[in-house]
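User: Could you go from structure to sequence for me? I need the amino acid at each position, not a summary. Structure tokens:
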């Protein structure tokens, strides 16, 4: 009887602590069999990893390499963490090349599709290599409490579909040319580089009603462009800029409304010379149909031009800007702290 009580107590204590699962992905792994911990592809690891105990997390540790595959994180796969094991995000690249014409629509083109809440990624590149061929999504994110740290998102049109839930992108690099951050998530881009590789608009946020808590906030970041001289820190050698070129004026817009209540805010962000003076575009929507909320606070750089901005945009006070800082804007009813969540990643 005593032995049974001890065993029962042990079992109860063991299930009271969340057990994480760690698996490895590497091109060196030649076979991947269910119930193993090593796999040759990321999707195989997603499909066949052990399940953690309640509250646990699955860590997929990805060896350096270029992974030519499409990855889907389904809704019933919460708390997935992808970790690139290279020295920089350019060492682990998940890539595919598919545009809307080939796929039958924009929303079938994504290289990586993320639907499971609590998703995390660190030190990884997400790429759609279709180039300037129309809509071609590198990552589609429809997950709440998603964190991307030290990641790269590479594409041209519609690179990052940040569409649902609360999302936090920190110390990352996002590249595209046309509407390349789009969707209706509540997303904060913190200490990021947003790089325009052609004329177009940086954002196409799609809030549909005034009471929605969604929108994009770009804070303590920098916008760079193809025409700027020099290289960028996170772009690395694959994205060396052509030297001795003067910036092309008036070719890049801060945003335009994919839906009428679009909301985008830039805070403490450096803007290049080729930002259009008016900053924003109505995409043909006129009052009373246009209810977009577009704002800036303390923009810097040659593209900062508050007196020339469209009359329906806003220049915020420090108090007004405070509500859009990461911890406030993404807190939600559960008081989620995205900065603390990101700090736990390597």
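Assistant: Here is the amino acid at each position, in order:
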């Amino acid at each position: 009887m005593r032995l049974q009580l001890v065993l029962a107590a042990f079992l109860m204590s063991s299930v009271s602590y969340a057990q994480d699962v760690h698996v490895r992905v590497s091109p060196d792994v030649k076979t991947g069999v269910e119930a193993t911990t090593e796999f040759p592809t990321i999707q195989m690891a997603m499909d066949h990893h052990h399940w953690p105990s309640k509250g646990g997390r699955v860590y997929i540790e990805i060896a350096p390499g270029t992974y030519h595959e499409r990855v889907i994180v389904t809704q019933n796969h919460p708390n997935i963490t992808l970790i690139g094991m290279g020295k920089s995000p350019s060492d682990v690249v998940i890539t595919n090349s598919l545009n809307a014409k080939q796929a039958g629509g924009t929303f079938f083109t994504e290289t990586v599709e993320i639907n499971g809440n609590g998703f995390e990624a660190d030190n990884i590149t997400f790429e759609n290599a279709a180039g300037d061929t129309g809509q071609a999504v590198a990552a589609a994110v429809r997950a709440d409490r998603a964190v991307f740290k030290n990641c790269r998102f590479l594409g041209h049109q519609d690179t990052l579909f940040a569409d649902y839930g609360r999302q936090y992108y920190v110390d990352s690099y996002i590249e595209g040319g046309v509407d390349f951050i789009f969707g209706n998530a509540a997303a904060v881009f913190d200490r990021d580089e947003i790089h325009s590789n052609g004329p177009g608009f940086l954002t196409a946020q799609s809030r549909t009603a005034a009471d929605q808590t969604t929108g994009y906030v770009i804070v303590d970041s920098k916008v760079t462009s193809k025409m700027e001289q020099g290289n960028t820190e996170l772009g690395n050698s694959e994205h060396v800029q052509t030297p001795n070129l003067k910036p092309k004026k008036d070719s890049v817009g801060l945003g335009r409304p994919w839906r009428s209540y679009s909301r985008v805010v830039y805070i403490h962000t450096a803007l290049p010379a080729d930002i259009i003076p008016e900053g924003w575009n109505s995409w043909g929507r006129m009052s009373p149909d246009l209810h977009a909320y577009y704002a800036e606070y303390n923009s810097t750089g040659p593209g900062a031009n508050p007196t020339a901005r469209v009359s329906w945009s806003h220049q915020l006070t420090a108090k007004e800007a405070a509500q859009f800082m990461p911890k406030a804007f993404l807190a939600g009813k559960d008081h989620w702290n995205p900065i603390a969540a990101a700090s736990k990643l390597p």
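One structural detail worth keeping in mind: The domain at 19-343 is CATH 2.160.20.10 (Pectate Lyase C-like).
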